[in-house]
Fold this protein.
Amino acid sequence: MNISKFPYFDNNATTPIHPEVIKVLSNYHQDYYGNPSSKAHPIGIICNALLEKHKKEISELLNVSENDIIFTSGSTESINLAIKGIYFQYSSQKRHIISCKTEHSAVLETLLYLKEHFNCDLTLLEVDANGNIKLDELEKNIREDTLMVCIMTANNETGVIHPIHDIHTITQKKKVLFFSDTTQAFGKMKLDKIPADIFCASSHKFHGCKGIGLLVIRNFNRKIFLHPILHGGQQQVIRSGTIPLPLVASLAKALSIIIENSDKYITHTHKIRNYFEKQLSLKHNIHVHGKSASRISNTSNIMCEPQHYETFIKLMKTFCYSHGSACSDGAGKPSHVLKSMELSDAQIKRSFRFSFSHFNSIHEIDMFLNELDKTINGMQF
Ligand code: PLP
């Protein structure tokens, strides 16, 4: 089936893979299939050298040390490793963790698991109607026994950006760890040096392939220790499992493309997103969630008028966008993010997320807007 006929506006769920990344994947699967840990023979040695080379590239792109990087299967694993790893390592000293109600379920469910089964003392900060936390609330809640603050950089459903530089300043002053889920940030906002002790990435969110991600723990070997959650051959000491060199090479490629072109991509998606919101609001009484907040460039979460709900649902047969986040879609529950932003279940039901990429065009937006008009007019007869 030719899926390219369906305009794709669901890039916060996952992205189409970049052709250059496919080339790398294919070459490496063909030529460099060796296990980088098999250092007793030439193929293993060559693969190990390539692994080190790509690790270095990635560390330079992220402005971190090579020792700070742990490859994982994606952000869900990175988040579990970060939160459980830190908690299991340090909970005999400190048990209090601060996070926020609008975090991704990978963060929230991990924290709730620790609360339920391991006595974690959890504070979840509220957000205002625009999805912003209050920095003074954060500071007020940090106590002697606070181990870590987990606040995402950019929200996957609304695109709202948290003030991570300020959060970092506060956590440094109070001497607590700061973990930020940066999954949705790459290529969608300016990020010179990520101001967090621990952060993560998932390659399929920036035109890489699925099944590879990373966790960064700054000064890993010197300052912060993690308890492993996967036990086995200890290939990456605290993360066991054969390191998939072709996926690592493809991650390095995807990351280099997204970071080296980020100004261009941000300008493009910003232009498309603003055009979409402006054109929609010329004819419709839409509300844009988080409009007054600072947002990543590609995301638009809009609430349509009650009479147009069915039309937006109907158009999902030909245009790809999301009704709630991909995860909450699956669970059939109203979005916890929008709920925290003071919206009723009925309002959440009328909310749709459009997330664009540099592969989208104004022409595709016009196609959607024309189809929306046609369908609404058709429904009136
Ligand atoms: N964190 C955020 C903000 C996300 O948007 C996602 C995916 O939607 C994840 C974590 C989990 O990423 P993955 O599904 O790649 O493990």
The chain has 13 helices and ten strands. Residues 53 and 249 are 9 Å apart (CA to CA). The beta strands are 69-72, 96-100, 121-125, 146-150, 177-180, 198-202, 213-217, 287-288, 299-303, 351-355. The longest helix spans residues 262-283.
